[in-house]
Amino acid sequence: MTTSSSGVSLGMPELPAPAYPDDVRARLEADAREVIARYPDSRSALLPLLHLVQAEEGHVTRTGMQFCADVLELTTAEVTAVATFYTMYRRRPSGDYQVGVCTNTLCAVMGGDAIFEELQEHLGVGNGETTDDGKVTLEHIECNAACDFAPVVMVNWEFFDNQSPASAKRLVDDLRAGRPVEPTRGARLCTFKETARILAGFPDERPGAVEESGGAGPASLVGLRLARGEAAPARVVHPRTQEPEGQQPSDQAAEEGE
Q: What is the pLDDT of residues 38-56, one digit of tens each?
């Protein structure tokens, strides 16, 4: 059903999605064949193909979903169900840089909520909205699995750790001005369209980008070390340097001997 600009249903069938230009479709079909060949079942290629069409237009359009349905022999309803389920697929035009502020519990109490509120005011946009210059889309996101670096901001899925309202505002200002920005960990930034193509499974062709890497912090890796059977790491919380109030060393020694 078609809708008006206010979102009210007009009760009329929606027109078919417009087709890609012939040259664009031919290029995407060649890429799609490469992606589909990686999977024993073609429908398993749907997620990377959605990234592929997102790399073309910066968001997943009706044309992109129709393309995915055609090459995978799925219905548009099946494709739409997946594209609308995962938040990584944008459903409307968005900026060159997706700035996500973690507002889950730890990041929130460490300052994530304050960062998000100040960025909204600083940029003049709300959640999921894009600046007028088309550079930055701001959104609040759930856990980034980087709690030991809270509060965390991500730009096109690259980490910017230990942020503050002031540093986050400098970050978005640099992005909008085209100044170089270096993530705390991971590869240098590229645009959202370029990121989407990499997520579709195509090589990152920027010289040296593959070698640029990062990792989790010590607190995040404790469980991994223990699972591997490695020795327990040093204590994260240092032992007390003083006896509990009202307890003498002789009393503690007696307790330990029991």
A: 999 998 999 999 999 999 9
